[in-house]
Specification:
The protein is an alpha/beta fold and 346 residues long. The chain has helices spanning 12-24, 36-46, 63-71, 90-100, 132-141, 193-202, 227-237, 240-259, 287-299, 326-334; strands spanning 29-33, 54-58, 75-79, 101-104, 107-110, 117-123, 145-149, 157-158, 169-173, 186-190, 265-266, 273-274, 281-283, 305-306, 335-337. It has a 7-stranded mixed β-sheet, with helices on both faces. Strands 11-13-15-14 form a 4-stranded antiparallel β-sheet. Strands 4-5 form a two-stranded antiparallel sheet. The model has no long low-confidence stretch (mean pLDDT 95). Bound molecules: pyridoxal-5'-phosphate (PLP).
């Protein structure tokens, strides 16, 4: 690849890996971009999310989910998660929409703010896929587009597919800490031809194809993945099955280990998900026990971490509309994530 001297944005590896990834994920289309965050942003733009729109998501997520919504000057609305999957709770989503919105010309309006609820971003926490089928049915009923934030879920399966079976668009991340990496990078998956063309266009500065002229027809983004990163991703994709086997083995070892400790629960994926076990987690009975464990293990040089501070507790999102977030707050106080990287040396 280096010998070819094509290391930047336009190069053969990008299109080749896009095709391989689409095939791997059983999706019609894939677009490679510079990060999972850029993928989320481009997906929101392609689905028509604009300034002052609202986007439903979970408070228990990594910051990037909400940052991408904010890049469009749209407003997140926070739902609670389910205890078994850490994904958006469909029951609460349905109740929220029934009690707080009405449809006008097939557009979902929030009674409380008067704004349009344009999209929902459901995140697959720790790599585990929750009730995305039920979330999709609810979003369809209320004419809300659905994005899967599968940044952590590459290789996880539900009903035979990771991405796109139950959403309009799905994204993943190839950041260095993910199952496979491009150094940095992300991808946008869809089965919709029009959406795909739109995503391809806006992530390449919205430049019209022309032999030599520079004509751009809207505000776009320089989000294309460079060829050099795509070459690394190509090599990583060849190893994904082995990475997933190694991840499962590590998860089994953690599960067996904590099985003997009655005060600590190993967090298992929901039964309907064949998880990639991206990040292993354990649950304590109290915040005090969790904090003591974090302190002791970090003092000993181990990279144990709490879950992300819930988004509604961050200063940028503290005034956003939210439902009761009891499970989110409880999980934040009791969960510790464990070192979960595996190597895949040949
Ligand atoms: C849930 C979630 N969404 C989005 C991202 C953003 O991906 P990236 O770091 O590639 O921008 C991440 C993590 O990296 C993530 O965990």
């Amino acid at each position: 690849m280096l010998d070819s001297s094509i290391v930047s944005s336009i190069g053969p590896c990008v299109a080749e890996v896009e095709e391989q990834l689409a095939k791997y994920a059983s999706n019609k289309h894939c677009t490679l971009v510079v990060s999972g965050t850029a993928a989320l942003h481009a997906a929101l733009v392609a689905l028509g999310v604009k300034a002052n729109d609202e986007v439903i998501t979970q408070s228990l997520t990594f910051l990037a989910t909400c940052n991408a919504i904010s890049y469009q000057q749209a407003h997140p609305i926070f739902m609670d998660v389910e205890e078994d999957s850490f994904g958006i709770c469909p029951g609460q989503l349905e109740r929220f929409l029934a009690q707080n919105t009405y449809l006008k010309d097939n557009i979902c309006i929030n009674r409380h703010s008067g704004r349009i609820i344009k999209a929902c971003v459901a995140m697959h926490t720790l790599g585990h896929i929750g009730k995305i089928n039920e979330i999709q049915a609810i979003c369809k009923k209320y004419h809300i587009s659905l994005i899967e934030d599968a940044a952590e879920a590459m290789g996880s399966m539900r009903d035979g597919m990771t991405f796109g079976k139950y959403s309009d668009v799905a994204i993943t991340s190839f950041n260095g800490n993910k199952i496979i990496t491009a150094g940095g990078g992300g991808a946008i998956f869809t089965n919709d031809d029009t959406l795909h063309n739109h995503v391809q266009h806006i992530t390449k500065n919205a430049k019209q194809p022309h032999q030599y002229e520079y004509i751009h027809d809207q505000i776009g983004f320089n989000y294309r993945m460079p060829n050099l990163n795509a070459a690394l991703l190509k090599a990583q994709l060849e190893l994904i099955d082995q990475f997933l086997i190694n991840k499962k083995e590590l998860a089994q070892q953690y599960d067996n280990f904590f099985d003997h400790i009655p005060t600590i629960e190993y967090v298992k994926p929901p039964p309907s998900c064949d998880s990639n076990f991206w990040l292993n987690a354990i649950k304590f009975n109290s915040k005090e026990e969790r904090s003591a464990f974090l302190q002791e293990t970090n003092d000993a040089g181990m990279s144990t971490r709490p879950l992300w501070k819930p988004m509604h507790q961050l200063i940028m999102f503290k005034n956003c509309q939210k439902t009761k977030l009891n499970i989110t707050e409880d999980l934040y106080q009791k969960i510790v994530t464990l070192p979960s990287s595996v190597t895949c040396l040949k």
